[in-house]
Amino acid sequence: KLWGYTGHTMAKFLVTFAVGVITGCFAVALSKCVSILISSKLLFIQNQMTLYEEDPAMAAFIGLLWFVLFGGIMVSIATSMVQYWAPASAGAGVTLVMAYLNGNHIPNLLRFSTLITKFVGTVFAVSSGLPMGPEGPMVHIGACVASVITYMDFKYLTSGKLFGRLKVKEIAIKERLKVLDEIVSDSDHREFVSAGVSAGIAAAFAAPIGGVLFSMEEACTFWSKKTAWRCFICGALSVYTVQIINPALGDGAIPLSNMTPLTIREWAEQLPFLLVDFAMAGLLGAAFNSLRMWLWKVRAAKTLHLQRIAEVIGLVFLVGSCAFFFASTAGKCLELPPTWEEDGYGVRFLCPEGQHNDLATLFLSNTHETIIALFSMGKGSAVPGSETFVPYFSIGSLALYTACYVVLMSIGAGLAIPGGLFMPSIVVGGCWGGMWGYVIKDLIPSWKVQPGIYGMLAATGVLGSVFRSAISLVVLMVEGTRGVDYIFGIILAVVVANYVANFIHHDGVYESELERVGNVYMLQSDPPSRLNTLTTESIMATGVKGFRPIESLVTLLEVLATTSHNGFPVWSEGSDVESADLKTEGSASEDEGCRRLEGIITRSQLLVLLQRRHFVDAHGNPVGREFSEGYELELETEMRTFFRRYYTHCRYISATRQPLESLSLDNGGLAAVDLNSLYLDLRPYMNRSPVTVRKECAASRAHQVFVNLNMRHLFVVDSHNHVVGLITRKDLDHAAGHGWWRMSHQAEPPRNK
Amino acid sequence: KLWGYTGHTMAKFLVTFAVGVITGCFAVALSKCVSILISSKLLFIQNQMTLYEEDPAMAAFIGLLWFVLFGGIMVSIATSMVQYWAPASAGAGVTLVMAYLNGNHIPNLLRFSTLITKFVGTVFAVSSGLPMGPEGPMVHIGACVASVITYMDFKYLTSGKLFGRLKVKEIAIKERLKVLDEIVSDSDHREFVSAGVSAGIAAAFAAPIGGVLFSMEEACTFWSKKTAWRCFICGALSVYTVQIINPALGDGAIPLSNMTPLTIREWAEQLPFLLVDFAMAGLLGAAFNSLRMWLWKVRAAKTLHLQRIAEVIGLVFLVGSCAFFFASTAGKCLELPPTWEEDGYGVRFLCPEGQHNDLATLFLSNTHETIIALFSMGKGSAVPGSETFVPYFSIGSLALYTACYVVLMSIGAGLAIPGGLFMPSIVVGGCWGGMWGYVIKDLIPSWKVQPGIYGMLAATGVLGSVFRSAISLVVLMVEGTRGVDYIFGIILAVVVANYVANFIHHDGVYESELERVGNVYMLQSDPPSRLNTLTTESIMATGVKGFRPIESLVTLLEVLATTSHNGFPVWSEGSDVESADLKTEGSASEDEGCRRLEGIITRSQLLVLLQRRHFVDAHGNPVGREFSEGYELELETEMRTFFRRYYTHCRYISATRQPLESLSLDNGGLAAVDLNSLYLDLRPYMNRSPVTVRKECAASRAHQVFVNLNMRHLFVVDSHNHVVGLITRKDLDHAAGHGWWRMSHQAEPPRNK
Questions:
Q1: Per-residue model confidence (pLDDT) at position A323
Q2: For FRET with A472, which of A517, B118, B229, B451 sits at 20 to 30 Å CA-CA?
Q3: A645 vs A626: CA distance, rounded Å
Q4: CA distance A707 to chain B (A)
Q5: What tens digit of pLDDT does each residue of A300-344 get?
Q6: What is the CATH topology of the domain spanning B264-513?
Q7: Chain pair A-B, CB pairs under 8 angstroms
């Protein structure tokens, strides 16, 4: 102990630091890999095309060929990894991380294999020119990093891979294991994952505060001061790491350049046009959401590996075709701005030296650089030196690109490849806004309209309408662009876009994806209003199976094998007087006479007891063993770490018959003894003081208890403390019903008899 | 309803906006008043002294006279207001706001009178030259603004002062009242107060994020996403208001000027000296804390009005004497830097034109400007133009001032006048650090030491050691000084100062003040570790008084008059079988046979029922009234708003005999009826589904339930659901015992029989 801190606190801080730094490194590596891959690909394609300069059609065809070849190889690798190795890494991953942080178990979500696939897949997806961004995957990568770091020790130490087989210092390792067991409980793990989320988004936008707020507003259900600090430290460290390695990011991830803040008069004059800008941004976002939802119907099933791979390659081909066809037919050759020349941005395509084909630039360049270019269309957006006004992009090209991009990104969202929606939404908004700005600039030349500002605000609007989040978005945009001067415009854009988009459909991309996932039950931290008018009794499940304090092995095995329940009440055998009394009342006495709640025991505890053959006879005397304190302690530790030791990342298997069969209790293992004479004494292991709710209780209060105390099973009792039902996550979700936040899918009704 | 929002949400947002803007206005008014008062006072004194320029002793005496006269008048007014009108406004007020937000009831803490006194008192205290700052009071002012706004309507509408007596639109007002009753529940009020705290500190430091973090780290116990958003919006608005009215604050409240960030080499070279700087800052903070705690013993009692006023005037005299004595004997005449001349900073005292007396400047100027001057002692701290190096302040003067100031601020903390400790701590740190920087500059002239950086970091260190907070402090300093480049130095300073100060004493200024307050029971949001080894049974109070569902008036009145309990269990009369069963067990059956918990009723509900003469006979049939739905609804509303309607700001009175006597049930009121034949039917009003804990439950779990579900009374039951005890805030506090966070005082033991 030092200064009130134990080693545990220090260890947790070290883990937090490590998560922040490593996530930052991933962010830097991601952006470096993407920019190197894209620029070398572009250079090669450009060189190949230059060979056929005299025949434009041929040149475009050759370019397309190489584009599809490169892209196809990259996405094939990525999609194969996703399909055959780590299916949980498809898509952005933010939704599933949200569900995980809400308390759902998502198999394999935070494995090491998922982390690797996510990273490689995102690099390839973005580099191959698919309309996808790295921000959403960064959230998932941050969460994976946190999970891998906190679980790593357990996995290698307990499976014996690292030290066990070498038989070196075995005792010391066991001691160390105990400390680690203490440090990382389930709720600590959740806290680290929250911190990882914050670090991921913070690193992607170079926005430490925005990271904390995103983690709080979108990702986390459980929030406390401790979590906030962890997120803050972790996010700040990851941003710091990014800036140390790549000092250019000091100006924000998507810096505004070339723009001057609007005066109050300019705001007032341009307000009507800005409102149109925001409203259209809202419509674009909503259109994307609707299209994406409609496309789910026609996508290949998740299990058809080859079809899924073909889908992705098809999208690469589609993107390439659009790019090369439109670039050669509709693209305009414009003068290359000098700042672009320095950065190596702008695709020449078939234009003369010193010019760029604007559509080719939009389609083929690094999306991140395109956004920076769009956000620099300020007052001086004419190329300096030239007398006439030459825009960065022509109006027609921007309009065409916006329309294409919305369709392509809708197709892209939901494919078996990692990729996020932040960047594409920003591109769509930036293009639309820039185009609108140029239109107004043409209409009213005296106003000095800055298309870049229209683009930036429209990008915020599209983000708002796609994600339907508010304040974290504002802070992310302000921090990401370092555009504090535009904060009121940004707020207005988010509000207007949200309002307009709400006429088309209600839920943002996270909510609708959560519905699609199906076996995920999201609990809001505030009880849904519908629960205010219900009682606990009306929402609970009644088919509760329980055990007596000393239960026979036969009954236990039967119940464990025939149900998939994870928590069981232990109820008293009941004094005759009371059960007689109850029988006359005829209320709660159903099959076992008296069901007065004594405690709760979980399936994992029972499995540990069975595995250890921890049997007693009918009177509670141990069979075939002596009492030993060390043994009991070991038992206790194993019960706590059961899922981590045996079912890391896939704890759902524990509720199937499989672990029971692997114990081989029925046959060989116990041939010598009669199964009927064996019992388990549950009293020392059950939770003797379960928090319960009364059946008259308001369902919203039950929701509060369930969520605030982080429960998995909440037993419902009557005023005699007899068990009448059980509330789980599913029941609360079912009872919440069809609120504004949920349009289609809901949990099945509770299991009542 | 619009877009999922009801009018309530909108009303709450409007309240939040109003709190932010009004708090911002208070902040601006405060700083303006202070700077005007101080500068005109200084101008007058300087002119008076110039008349006696030939006789320095006489001049100093005349100056002192006027100083004490002005200051004495101002503090007399302020202290009289505090003593005779609003005692709750003494001191910084942060501690009491913390206690309030923890769930304690503090009489009159957030009244309108407290707000006015706090504002006027702070202006006078700071203007009269006392070693006090406006930041702590700003927190209290923000909290008061929030409370006054949320409660204003109720007070004027229900007391009938505004409309009732005019009998205008009475029905419309009643309708409106219902809406307001819905809007502002106790927990909403707490949320608004949290937002006010955030707005107050944000406005004081021009740091919106720092405000949220301070509210989260220091002030609030209950924290949720909703609270965070409210704090954020409110803080951002108040900062925005401040900056609109006073654009100079755009660079932060205490901007660094004249300084260049250290290179990594400079950090490394100066590290040993910086560590000494931080350690000494920690010692200074700890010395202040110890001295302040020791001085509590010799202060006047709170009730001795005149002595308390004399104390404050005495301090003014002491400050004045120190200032004028040291300035004329030890003060050095130094050249006036040109930037100071522009700002009108620097006191000439008896020096020649174009110079200033450094000690007089330190003692007599506006503290805020002194801090800015201290933080601008950078590379160019020599007066430009002059060949030789002339510091802003001489080393001796800084040392003398640091020593004096620590003593004076220790005396000041705890007087009957509003005033905070942030500013004084920063001054002490700034002076010490600046002096140390000058010393090193003299020792190693080749290093280009910047004393201002030493001062700024030492100021952070002193703050850290006085308040023992960490991250909110770092963010506040970074935002307040806009010194992002120094963030790692700031973090190091906080850590080192905290570490060093911990050797002297453990608790920060808030913790030690909480102990001194006495009747405040602070619950941490994480259970203290001591509770992990206790059961609920061992910490609960057992002397629980309860009622039967239909209880006789005589029993009720007796229990209400003889206890000061605020919550009572309603227990069943019990079937004979069960109570017989229990008697044989001989466990929980004490005086009333069976104590099976049916529900909970509060004293306020009983008082409403009594006041409305809501009686029944022994069989539950109403006496002297018919059932009416409207009447029942009214009853329900009155129960919910009882404390706000009758005991706003002083709800403790409700648990005395006074309200009972004012009902005059014993004598006149009910002469016609026999008291013994009257009963109250509690069943329709009690909470039928109380959350309880079992007596075997770990005390830390009970703490979690109590704190997470925001309870006031938590009944402890056995497995038969019989009441065996009760846990209140006091019991949890007592059980937490003497941890690191509490050194002296603790709650009395639970009331056991």
A1: 92
A2: A517
A3: 26
A4: 10
A5: 777 788 888 999 999 999 999 999 999 988 888 888 888 888 888
A6: Clc chloride channel (1.10.3080)
A7: 105
